[in-house]
Amino acid sequence: MKIRKAVIAVAGYGTRFLPATKVQPKEMLPVVDKPIVQYLVEEAVQSGIEDIILVTRSGSQAITDHFDSSRELEIHLAEQQKQAYLEIVQAIPRLANFAFIRQGRHLPYGNGTPLLAAKDFIDEGEPFVYMFGDDLVLSETPCVKQLIDVYMQHRPAAVVAFQELPLEEAIRYGLARVKEGTNPKELESIVEKPSLEEAPSTLAQFGRFVLPWRTIEILETMEPGLDNELYLTDANHILCREARVLAHTIEGVWYTTGDPLRFLQTNVQYALRHPEIGRAFAEYLRSLDLSQY
User: Fold this and answer.
1) Beta-carbon contacts of residue 97 (< 8 Å; ≥ 6 apart)
2) pTM above the 0.85 mark?
3) N or C: at which end does the chain have fewer Cβ atoms within 10 angstroms?
Protein backbone atom coordinates (compact mmCIF):
# COMPACT_ATOMS: atom_id res chain seq x y z
CA MET A 1 0.00 0.00 0.00
CA LYS A 2 1.37 3.37 -1.02
CA ILE A 3 1.91 5.77 1.87
CA ARG A 4 0.21 8.99 0.82
CA LYS A 5 -0.81 10.71 4.08
CA ALA A 6 1.22 12.59 6.67
CA VAL A 7 0.03 13.89 10.02
CA ILE A 8 2.00 16.91 11.27
CA ALA A 9 1.66 17.92 14.93
CA VAL A 10 1.53 21.71 15.26
CA ALA A 11 -0.69 22.01 18.33
CA GLY A 12 1.87 23.07 20.93
CA TYR A 13 1.99 26.39 22.75
CA GLY A 14 5.69 27.14 22.23
CA THR A 15 6.06 28.28 25.83
CA ARG A 16 9.86 28.39 25.65
CA PHE A 17 9.55 31.12 23.00
CA LEU A 18 7.23 33.45 24.89
CA PRO A 19 6.44 36.27 24.33
CA ALA A 20 7.17 35.68 20.61
CA THR A 21 4.60 32.88 20.52
CA LYS A 22 1.89 34.68 22.47
CA VAL A 23 -0.20 35.19 19.31
CA GLN A 24 1.97 33.40 16.72
CA PRO A 25 2.30 29.61 16.53
CA LYS A 26 5.86 28.49 17.13
CA GLU A 27 5.77 26.48 13.89
CA MET A 28 5.28 29.76 12.00
CA LEU A 29 8.59 31.17 13.26
CA PRO A 30 10.90 31.62 10.27
CA VAL A 31 13.99 29.60 9.53
CA VAL A 32 15.65 32.08 7.18
CA ASP A 33 12.75 32.86 4.81
CA LYS A 34 10.19 30.10 5.39
CA PRO A 35 8.21 29.09 8.48
CA ILE A 36 9.23 25.86 10.18
CA VAL A 37 6.01 24.10 9.19
CA GLN A 38 6.55 24.75 5.48
CA TYR A 39 9.87 22.88 5.58
CA LEU A 40 8.00 19.91 7.06
CA VAL A 41 5.31 20.02 4.39
CA GLU A 42 7.89 20.29 1.60
CA GLU A 43 9.84 17.33 2.98
CA ALA A 44 6.69 15.22 3.02
CA VAL A 45 5.69 16.26 -0.50
CA GLN A 46 9.19 15.57 -1.84
CA SER A 47 8.81 12.08 -0.35
CA GLY A 48 5.65 11.31 -2.30
CA ILE A 49 3.05 12.37 0.28
CA GLU A 50 -0.15 13.73 -1.28
CA ASP A 51 -2.38 14.49 1.73
CA ILE A 52 -1.17 16.64 4.63
CA ILE A 53 -3.16 16.60 7.89
CA LEU A 54 -2.12 19.47 10.16
CA VAL A 55 -3.27 19.11 13.77
CA THR A 56 -3.52 22.60 15.22
CA ARG A 57 -4.91 24.27 18.34
CA SER A 58 -6.99 27.28 19.14
CA GLY A 59 -5.10 30.41 18.12
CA SER A 60 -3.25 28.76 15.23
CA GLN A 61 -5.17 30.42 12.41
CA ALA A 62 -1.89 31.68 10.93
CA ILE A 63 -0.96 28.11 9.95
CA THR A 64 -4.24 27.62 8.10
CA ASP A 65 -3.91 31.01 6.41
CA HIS A 66 -0.32 30.27 5.32
CA PHE A 67 -1.38 27.23 3.29
CA ASP A 68 -4.40 28.99 1.79
CA SER A 69 -4.49 31.39 -1.14
CA SER A 70 -4.09 35.09 -0.38
CA ARG A 71 -5.98 37.00 -3.06
CA GLU A 72 -5.10 40.47 -1.79
CA LEU A 73 -1.39 39.68 -1.57
CA GLU A 74 -1.37 38.07 -5.01
CA ILE A 75 -3.10 41.09 -6.57
CA HIS A 76 -0.60 43.41 -4.88
CA LEU A 77 2.41 41.41 -6.12
CA ALA A 78 0.97 41.26 -9.64
CA GLU A 79 0.39 45.03 -9.66
CA GLN A 80 3.95 45.60 -8.45
CA GLN A 81 5.22 43.23 -11.18
CA LYS A 82 6.99 41.09 -8.59
CA GLN A 83 6.53 37.88 -10.53
CA ALA A 84 9.07 35.77 -8.61
CA TYR A 85 7.41 36.50 -5.28
CA LEU A 86 3.96 35.95 -6.80
CA GLU A 87 4.97 32.48 -7.95
CA ILE A 88 6.36 31.64 -4.51
CA VAL A 89 3.09 32.64 -2.83
CA GLN A 90 0.88 30.87 -5.37
CA ALA A 91 2.87 27.62 -5.07
CA ILE A 92 2.23 27.15 -1.34
CA PRO A 93 -1.46 26.06 -1.40
CA ARG A 94 -0.69 23.78 -4.36
CA LEU A 95 1.92 21.75 -2.49
CA ALA A 96 -0.58 19.09 -1.35
CA ASN A 97 -4.15 18.39 -0.32
CA PHE A 98 -4.47 20.02 3.11
CA ALA A 99 -6.74 19.20 6.03
CA PHE A 100 -6.68 21.21 9.27
CA ILE A 101 -7.92 19.70 12.53
CA ARG A 102 -8.22 21.36 15.93
CA GLN A 103 -6.90 19.25 18.79
CA GLY A 104 -9.87 19.49 21.13
CA ARG A 105 -9.45 20.30 24.80
CA HIS A 106 -11.32 17.10 25.68
CA LEU A 107 -8.30 15.11 24.49
CA PRO A 108 -5.34 14.47 26.81
CA TYR A 109 -2.16 16.50 26.37
CA GLY A 110 0.85 14.80 24.81
CA ASN A 111 2.70 14.09 21.56
CA GLY A 112 0.51 11.05 20.85
CA THR A 113 -2.70 13.08 21.04
CA PRO A 114 -2.59 14.58 17.51
CA LEU A 115 -3.07 11.07 16.13
CA LEU A 116 -6.35 10.76 18.03
CA ALA A 117 -7.46 14.08 16.56
CA ALA A 118 -6.51 12.92 13.04
CA LYS A 119 -8.04 9.46 13.35
CA ASP A 120 -11.04 10.05 11.08
CA PHE A 121 -8.79 11.22 8.25
CA ILE A 122 -6.87 7.93 8.11
CA ASP A 123 -8.39 4.73 6.77
CA GLU A 124 -8.38 1.66 9.00
CA GLY A 125 -5.35 -0.45 8.14
CA GLU A 126 -3.61 2.44 6.36
CA PRO A 127 0.07 3.19 7.14
CA PHE A 128 0.95 6.88 7.41
CA VAL A 129 3.74 9.32 8.21
CA TYR A 130 3.81 11.23 11.50
CA MET A 131 5.99 14.32 11.97
CA PHE A 132 6.65 16.49 15.01
CA GLY A 133 6.52 20.22 14.30
CA ASP A 134 9.84 20.88 16.08
CA ASP A 135 12.21 18.85 13.93
CA LEU A 136 13.97 19.64 10.66
CA VAL A 137 16.41 17.47 8.73
CA LEU A 138 19.08 18.55 6.24
CA SER A 139 19.77 15.63 3.91
CA GLU A 140 20.24 14.72 0.27
CA THR A 141 17.33 12.28 0.41
CA PRO A 142 14.34 13.69 2.33
CA CYS A 143 14.10 12.07 5.75
CA VAL A 144 10.49 10.97 5.25
CA LYS A 145 11.44 9.30 1.96
CA GLN A 146 14.20 7.39 3.75
CA LEU A 147 11.65 6.00 6.21
CA ILE A 148 9.15 5.16 3.48
CA ASP A 149 11.85 3.38 1.47
CA VAL A 150 12.79 1.27 4.51
CA TYR A 151 9.12 0.49 5.11
CA MET A 152 8.48 -0.53 1.51
CA GLN A 153 11.59 -2.71 1.40
CA HIS A 154 11.17 -4.57 4.71
CA ARG A 155 7.42 -4.26 5.47
CA PRO A 156 7.69 -3.88 9.25
CA ALA A 157 4.84 -2.61 11.41
CA ALA A 158 6.58 0.77 11.80
CA VAL A 159 9.80 2.67 11.14
CA VAL A 160 11.20 5.20 13.63
CA ALA A 161 13.92 7.75 12.78
CA PHE A 162 17.05 8.02 14.91
CA GLN A 163 20.21 10.14 14.84
CA GLU A 164 23.58 9.22 16.32
CA LEU A 165 24.56 11.87 18.89
CA PRO A 166 27.37 12.31 21.42
CA LEU A 167 26.35 10.56 24.63
CA GLU A 168 26.11 13.76 26.69
CA GLU A 169 23.65 15.22 24.16
CA ALA A 170 21.84 11.96 23.41
CA ILE A 171 20.56 11.50 26.97
CA ARG A 172 18.31 14.54 26.50
CA TYR A 173 16.14 12.37 24.24
CA GLY A 174 14.65 8.91 23.95
CA LEU A 175 17.36 6.37 23.11
CA ALA A 176 16.97 3.15 21.15
CA ARG A 177 17.44 -0.25 22.71
CA VAL A 178 18.01 -2.47 19.70
CA LYS A 179 17.48 -6.23 19.58
CA GLU A 180 20.82 -7.99 19.27
CA GLY A 181 21.74 -9.50 15.94
CA THR A 182 19.03 -7.71 13.93
CA ASN A 183 19.79 -6.15 10.55
CA PRO A 184 18.10 -3.81 9.81
CA LYS A 185 17.95 -2.70 13.43
CA GLU A 186 14.82 -3.87 15.21
CA LEU A 187 13.62 -1.89 18.20
CA GLU A 188 13.23 -3.60 21.54
CA SER A 189 12.26 -0.40 23.36
CA ILE A 190 12.99 3.32 23.69
CA VAL A 191 14.47 4.58 26.94
CA GLU A 192 13.38 8.14 27.69
CA LYS A 193 16.10 10.54 28.88
CA PRO A 194 18.25 7.96 30.67
CA SER A 195 21.23 8.69 32.89
CA LEU A 196 24.71 8.37 31.39
CA GLU A 197 25.08 4.98 33.06
CA GLU A 198 21.72 3.66 31.85
CA ALA A 199 21.89 4.81 28.22
CA PRO A 200 21.29 1.76 25.99
CA SER A 201 22.83 3.47 22.92
CA THR A 202 23.56 6.88 21.42
CA LEU A 203 20.72 6.57 18.89
CA ALA A 204 18.36 9.44 19.70
CA GLN A 205 14.74 9.37 18.55
CA PHE A 206 13.22 12.44 16.93
CA GLY A 207 9.94 13.34 15.25
CA ARG A 208 9.77 11.25 12.09
CA PHE A 209 7.77 8.01 11.93
CA VAL A 210 6.01 5.64 9.58
CA LEU A 211 3.22 4.18 11.70
CA PRO A 212 0.41 1.66 11.31
CA TRP A 213 -3.26 2.10 12.13
CA ARG A 214 -2.58 -0.11 15.15
CA THR A 215 -0.73 2.82 16.81
CA ILE A 216 -3.98 4.80 16.92
CA GLU A 217 -5.81 1.82 18.43
CA ILE A 218 -3.15 1.55 21.14
CA LEU A 219 -3.31 5.27 21.93
CA GLU A 220 -7.09 5.08 22.25
CA THR A 221 -6.85 2.47 25.01
CA MET A 222 -3.83 3.91 26.86
CA GLU A 223 -3.96 5.92 30.05
CA PRO A 224 -1.83 9.08 30.10
CA GLY A 225 1.65 8.44 31.46
CA LEU A 226 4.34 10.65 33.01
CA ASP A 227 3.06 14.14 33.89
CA ASN A 228 -0.40 13.00 32.78
CA GLU A 229 0.65 13.16 29.09
CA LEU A 230 -0.18 10.74 26.29
CA TYR A 231 3.19 9.75 24.86
CA LEU A 232 3.77 8.17 21.46
CA THR A 233 6.80 6.41 22.95
CA ASP A 234 4.54 4.47 25.33
CA ALA A 235 2.43 3.32 22.37
CA ASN A 236 5.57 2.33 20.47
CA HIS A 237 6.71 0.23 23.44
CA ILE A 238 3.51 -1.79 23.14
CA LEU A 239 3.87 -2.03 19.37
CA CYS A 240 7.45 -3.31 19.72
CA ARG A 241 6.17 -6.21 21.84
CA GLU A 242 3.50 -7.06 19.28
CA ALA A 243 5.28 -6.60 15.97
CA ARG A 244 8.48 -5.68 14.16
CA VAL A 245 9.46 -2.01 14.53
CA LEU A 246 12.60 -0.85 12.74
CA ALA A 247 15.02 1.85 13.91
CA HIS A 248 16.41 3.79 10.95
CA THR A 249 19.59 5.81 11.45
CA ILE A 250 19.02 8.69 9.09
CA GLU A 251 21.36 9.92 6.38
CA GLY A 252 21.63 13.62 7.10
CA VAL A 253 21.54 15.89 10.14
CA TRP A 254 18.57 16.45 12.42
CA TYR A 255 18.05 19.94 13.84
CA THR A 256 15.49 20.69 16.53
CA THR A 257 13.78 24.06 16.84
CA GLY A 258 12.26 23.25 20.22
CA ASP A 259 14.08 25.91 22.24
CA PRO A 260 15.60 29.33 21.42
CA LEU A 261 19.24 28.19 21.38
CA ARG A 262 18.69 25.27 19.03
CA PHE A 263 16.30 27.33 16.93
CA LEU A 264 19.08 29.86 16.36
CA GLN A 265 21.59 27.09 15.61
CA THR A 266 19.18 25.69 13.04
CA ASN A 267 18.78 29.11 11.44
CA VAL A 268 22.56 29.40 11.08
CA GLN A 269 22.85 26.02 9.40
CA TYR A 270 20.01 26.71 6.97
CA ALA A 271 21.25 30.24 6.24
CA LEU A 272 24.71 28.94 5.33
CA ARG A 273 23.10 26.63 2.77
CA HIS A 274 20.73 29.22 1.34
CA PRO A 275 21.51 29.74 -2.38
CA GLU A 276 21.07 33.51 -2.26
CA ILE A 277 22.54 34.56 1.07
CA GLY A 278 24.71 31.63 2.16
CA ARG A 279 28.06 32.96 0.98
CA ALA A 280 27.49 36.48 2.28
CA PHE A 281 26.28 35.12 5.62
CA ALA A 282 29.39 32.96 5.94
CA GLU A 283 31.55 36.02 5.30
CA TYR A 284 29.65 37.89 8.00
CA LEU A 285 30.17 35.08 10.52
CA ARG A 286 33.90 35.01 9.75
CA SER A 287 34.09 38.76 10.43
CA LEU A 288 32.69 38.48 13.97
CA ASP A 289 34.98 38.96 16.95
CA LEU A 290 33.62 36.50 19.52
CA SER A 291 36.48 36.80 21.99
CA GLN A 292 34.42 39.05 24.28
CA TYR A 293 31.69 36.43 24.79
Assistant:
1) 50, 51, 52
2) yes
3) C
